[in-house]
Amino acid sequence: MKLGIEQRYNMDALEQWLNTFWQSSIKQRTLLTREKQSVCVCSSCSSYNRCAGEIHESVYCITGKSHLCITEDRGCTCTRCPLVAELGLKYSGFCRDGAEAAQRYEHELH
Fold it and tell me: For 18-34, what is the mean pLDDT?
């Protein structure tokens, strides 16, 4: 019996989602991202500002930290986001500290 990559490496929910995401077409990736944006709470966070809203930044846990807009911590709502439980996220502060995958990698190095 041939095992899929998820079974061979015992991937968690985030790793499985990312695996699906990167194996999808660009069009499908856009749909997968929009699906996560529909439950994202980034825009209700105290740290989220007008700049981030104007350029439609969100789902920092997947897409990575804010490129230019969010520069100060005025509170964090990451732990109240449904994506934390759905994807098994371990970290927070994604808009400033980077995506979950990046934070996991960084913590493994230190």
Answer: 96
